[in-house]
């Protein structure tokens, strides 16, 4: 009996090779036979020998082609790599046993494409498909001299093991450690993105297509901006007449250029863009920014234009920004790239910015110039057909000029991948976001909040707030704590600063006696020296407080008047900043006409008002606190039976999606070590009384007839037989059909909670925790959930609700609640078919967690993003094949010896 075909032709993906080139990975098809034959026919003798262990003859190659081109099944999978019209690699796996989880693998890459990471990409995509059909281990053999493949395997997965046996190298790769797989894939992705986006953000040559004579035209103004900013590379203008523009010679077409340029900026009518990109691709252009509009909307014309543009870029290996972009900008003095329609050029600095909205981008650059917030690079993503936030995260991760990253995104192409990569970036550099109201869907607010919370993203609500926070984070030592010292001459303005600081959670610590002795008139924190204080007096006091070691952050409050010199004061305070590289310092300067935005060698920020300074410092402190926290781990959880739960869900889905009966929901939860308080059925009033007396009063009575999503009439606090008999009559009378009741011992505990799961096709699953009744004060985290995530969840709830007092210990054992949350998280990871799960009420007390009731709604999982795959196109994971029909399975086909290939 043969296995069921599973992989559809549409399941392909464009991905980046290690040199930044674009290849397409997809399942093999019968019509690939000719291209595969050409792949082997063009291979060198050594390459064939490493793959087959012999120099294969026609029969061997023919048998191999027969195997590779058959429809994919649960037991045999094949993927191929194409670059433009050339098939350049293939990888396959064959399950060793129909019921087993191990598969033998083989791979082959064309000689001229070795060293580009093609073999690794093939194995990544093959592994993702294999996991979807229950294959969790790759095995194979290779010749000891196959050093290239040994490097591929060691880079592919840290859990790849090799050993020399009988003259061959045996290979074993464990595919179950998703975290290890993701780490390796992300490291490869960063290398590929750096190579892929370098022509976009650090080009050696630029051509502006559509650079006409008319002032105000997008092409003309972009060319002029590039020239005026001093682009260090070669600059070309393209227009049909071939007339010079801005003093630069022009060419009639990209094909007339004397070289293949790195970057093309396209500013022509929307209907002309595909042709312009095609010509650019044929000339070897490696990246394009499309300024043209007319690609938005849901109509057929706009959809076709978008498809044409993206297809053209992919076919020619170009990275694409836009359409509807306002351009890109880079301040590196070695490049000086200003291919941007913004009229303002911001100062050079450490903040990289990506925005979907062009108008937000223009406003942000203008405010950056006004506030002195330096920019390293700026990308206007526009319609975001290709280059996305995920690509830029990978590029900026290792960019030495970028010290912080800011996003304004209206959508997430692959939120699961974004969540993981932005969290990794946040460990190295601050990530700030100005969230768009348009990004919210029906469930998006909680999901986005959970994503940003786990990733340590600095969330802001306005452009000024985001840039203020960036200035407090860039070039400054991170705040070591919440102890704030204030020094200055600002009088009543200082009082406002104190009130704002305390409201933000800062502590204005009293200074020690020794420190106060060194201050004028023994002043304490805040140290207000009066409006007449000289620059030397203010600087001396600031030096004393910074030297004391008694504050983590120093805020300098300076008011300028006609009678004092704010420039002199800030110059004196600059020496204090330079003397204390380990102290976070910011200043408020008001009442001065001097445009001072930074002071000290490191450029400590200067703000116009105390509220803006306090808010920025609060963002910096929260980020520093998050960065100091360990990441946590996914602990081993005893008593989990994923296979049993998966079978129960599969059986339930066979009868249709929707709410599971309570008895089946309880069985699924038991498979993950979550147990419900027993419920007993009674069909008559006499039976109900008998059950209640055996349980012990008080009890709860509810209908046995209603589905889980309709609780119906519930009677609580039943303390006698008469009360139970009366409740039975009321509950059954309200039921839609004749049925009995469910009776449960009424529980009590110091804290009553609600916990559950919510699944989103884009973001994945979310674990939620709140107080009983409408998720009051709820907190949430996206899976996978670590032990520290679980601890932070309950600590995010109102402390008084958990302890009876603000500073008291919780009235339950936190370990019990964290265990419950971790089990929910693992259940959500393993079974995305659980669309919604709610445990309520959960009684939390010293004796543990008692779950009184549970509701589970299930739904089939469709095409959802795979966070592990490196791919440029939208992720569509391979569907899980239906179970084979009953009967004796046929023996799965065995491949010729696995991993007999040359280095890739």
Structural class: alpha/beta
Number of H/I helices: 26
The oligomeric state of the chains shown is single chain
Number of strands: 38
Shape: globular
Give the mean pLDDT: 89
Helix content range = 25-40%
Strand order of the largest sheet: 1-2-3-4-5-6-8-7
Largest sheet: 8 strands, mixed
Give the low-confidence spans: 1-9, 874-904
Radius of gyration: 32 Å
> Termini, distance in Å?
36 Å
Q: Which band does the percent of strand residues land in? A: 15-25%
What's the topology here?
Blueprint: E1 13-16, E2 22-27, H1 33-41, H2 45-52, H3 58-68, E3 76-83, E4 86-95, E5 102-109, H4 118-132, E6 137-142, H5 147-156, E7 160-165, E8 168-174, H6 178-201, E9 205-209, H7 218-229, E10 234-238, E11 250-251, E12 263-266, H8 273-282, E13 287-290, H9 300-315, E14 319-321, E15 327-330, E16 337-340, E17 348-355, H10 358-371, E18 375-380, H11 389-397, E19 404-408, H12 415-428, E20 431-434, H13 444-455, E21 458-460, H14 463-473, E22 484-488, H15 492-503, H16 513-517, E23 527-528, H17 535-548, E24 553-559, H18 566-579, E25 584-590, E26 598-599, E27 604-607, H19 610-628, H20 642-654, E28 658-659, H21 662-670, E29 680-682, H22 685-695, E30 699-703, E31 714-718, H23 721-733, E32 741-745, E33 751-760, E34 764-771, E35 776-782, H24 787-795, H25 799-803, H26 814-830, E36 834-845, E37 848-851, E38 854-858
Parallel strand pairs: 5-6, 9-10, 9-12, 10-11, 12-13, 13-14, 17-18, 17-19, 19-20, 20-21, 22-23, 22-24, 24-25, 25-27
Antiparallel strand pairs: 1-2, 2-3, 3-4, 4-5, 6-8, 7-8, 15-16, 15-18, 26-27, 28-38, 29-32, 30-31, 30-32, 33-34, 33-36, 34-35, 36-37, 36-38
């Amino acid at each position: 009996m043969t296995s069921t075909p599973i992989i559809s032709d549409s399941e392909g993906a464009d991905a980046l090779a290690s040199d930044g080139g674009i290849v397409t990975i997809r399942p093999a098809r019968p019509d690939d036979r000719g291209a595969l034959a050409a792949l082997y026919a063009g291979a060198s003798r050594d390459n064939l020998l490493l793959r087959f262990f012999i120099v294969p003859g026609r029969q061997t190659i023919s048998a191999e082609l027969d195997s590779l081109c058959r429809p994919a099944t649960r037991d045999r999978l094949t993927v191929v790599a194409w670059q433009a019209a050339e098939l350049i690699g293939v990888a396959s796996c064959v399950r060793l046993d129909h019921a087993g989880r191990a598969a033998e693998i083989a791979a082959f890459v064309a000689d001229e494409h070795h060293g580009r990471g093609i073999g690794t990409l093939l194995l990544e995509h093959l592994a993702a498909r294999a996991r979807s059909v229950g294959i969790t281990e790759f095995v194979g053999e290779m010749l000891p001299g196959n050093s290239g493949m040994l490097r591929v395997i060691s880079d592919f997965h840290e859990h790849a093991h090799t050993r020399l046996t009988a003259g061959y190298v045996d290979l074993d790769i464990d595919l179950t450690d998703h975290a290890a797989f993701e780490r390796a894939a992300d490291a490869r992705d960063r290398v590929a993105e750096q190579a892929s986006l370098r022509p976009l953000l650090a080009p050696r040559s630029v051509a502006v297509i559509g650079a006409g004579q008319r002032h105000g035209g997008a092409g003309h103004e972009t060319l002029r901006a590039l020239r005026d900013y001093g682009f260090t590379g070669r600059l070309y203008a393209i227009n049909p007449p071939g007339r010079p523009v801005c003093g630069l010679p022009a060419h009639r077409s990209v094909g007339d250029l004397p070289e293949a340029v790195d970057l093309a900026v396209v500013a022509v009518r929307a209907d002309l863009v595909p042709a312009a990109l095609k010509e650019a691709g044929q000339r070897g252009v490696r990246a394009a920014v499309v300024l043209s509009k007319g690609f938005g909307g849901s109509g057929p014309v706009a959809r076709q234009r978008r498809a044409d543009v993206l297809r053209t870029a992919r076919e020619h290996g170009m990275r694409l920004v836009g359409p509807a972009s306002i351009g890109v900008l880079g301040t590196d003095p070695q490049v000086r790239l200003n291919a941007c329609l913004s009229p303002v050029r911001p100062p050079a600095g450490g903040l990289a910015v990506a925005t979907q909205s062009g108008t937000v981008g223009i406003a942000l650059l203008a405010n950056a110039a006004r506030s002195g917030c330096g920019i390293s690079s700026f990308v206007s993503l526009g319609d975001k057909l290709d280059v996305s936030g995920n690509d830029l995260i990978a590029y900026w991760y290792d960019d030495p000029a970028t010290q912080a990253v800011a996003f304004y995104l209206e959508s997430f192409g692959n939120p699961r991948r974004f969540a993981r990569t932005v969290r990794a970036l946040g460990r190295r550099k601050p990530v700030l976001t100005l969230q768009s109201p348009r990004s919210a869907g029906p469930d998006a607010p909680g999901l986005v909040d959970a994503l940003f919370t786990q990733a340590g993203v600095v969330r802001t609500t306005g452009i000024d707030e985001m840039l203020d926070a960036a200035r407090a984070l860039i070039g400054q030592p991170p705040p070591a704590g919440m102890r704030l010292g204030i020094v200055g001459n600002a009088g009543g303005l200082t009082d406002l600063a104190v009130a704002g600081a305390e409201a933000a959670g800062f502590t204005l610590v009293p200074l020690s006696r020794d420190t106060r002795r060194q201050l004028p008139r023994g002043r304490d924190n805040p140290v207000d020296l009066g409006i007449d204080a000289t620059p030397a007096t203010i600087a001396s006091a600031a030096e004393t407080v910074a030297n004391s070691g008694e504050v983590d952050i120093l805020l300098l409050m300076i008011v300028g008047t006609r009678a004092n010199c704010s420039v002199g004061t800030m110059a004196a305070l600059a020496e204090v900043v330079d003397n204390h590289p380990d102290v976070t310092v910011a200043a408020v300067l008001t009442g001065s006409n001097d445009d001072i935005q930074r002071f000290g060698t490191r450029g400590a920020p200067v703000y116009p008002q105390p509220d803006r300074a306090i808010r920025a410092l609060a963002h910096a402190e929260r980020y520093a606190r998050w960065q100091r926290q360990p990441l946590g781990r996914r602990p081993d959880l005893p008593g989990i039976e994923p296979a049993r739960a998966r079978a129960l869900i599969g059986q339930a889905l066979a009868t249709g999606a929707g709410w599971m009966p309570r008895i089946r929901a309880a069985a699924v939860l038991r498979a993950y070590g979550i147990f419900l308080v027993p419920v007993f059925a009674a069909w008559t009033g006499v039976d109900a009384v008998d059950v209640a007396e055996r349980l012990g009063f008080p009890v709860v009575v509810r209908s046995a007839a209603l589905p889980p999503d309709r609780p119906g009439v519930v009677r609580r606090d039943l303390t006698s037989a008469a009360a139970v008999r009366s409740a039975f009559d009321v509950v059954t009378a309200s039921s839609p059909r004749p049925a009995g009741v469910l009776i449960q011992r009424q529980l009590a505990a110091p804290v009553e909670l609600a916990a559950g799961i919510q699944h989103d096709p884009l973001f994945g699953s979310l674990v939620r925790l709140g107080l009983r009744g409408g998720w009051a004060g709820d907190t949430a985290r996206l899976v996978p959930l670590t032990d520290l995530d679980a601890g932070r969840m309950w600590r995010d709830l109102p402390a008084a609700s958990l302890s009876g007092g603000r500073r008291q210990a919780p009235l339950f054992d936190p370990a019990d609640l964290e265990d419950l949350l971790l089990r929910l998280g693992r259940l959500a990871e393993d079974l995305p078919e659980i669309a919604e799960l709610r445990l309520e009420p959960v009684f939390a007390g010293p004796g543990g967690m008692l779950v009184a009731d549970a509701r589970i709604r299930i739904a089939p999982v469709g095409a959802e993003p795979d966070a592990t795959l490196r791919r440029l196109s939208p992720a569509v994971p391979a569907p899980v094949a239906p179970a084979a029909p009953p009967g004796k399975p046929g023996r799965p086909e065995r491949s010729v010896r696995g991993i007999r290939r040359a280095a890739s």
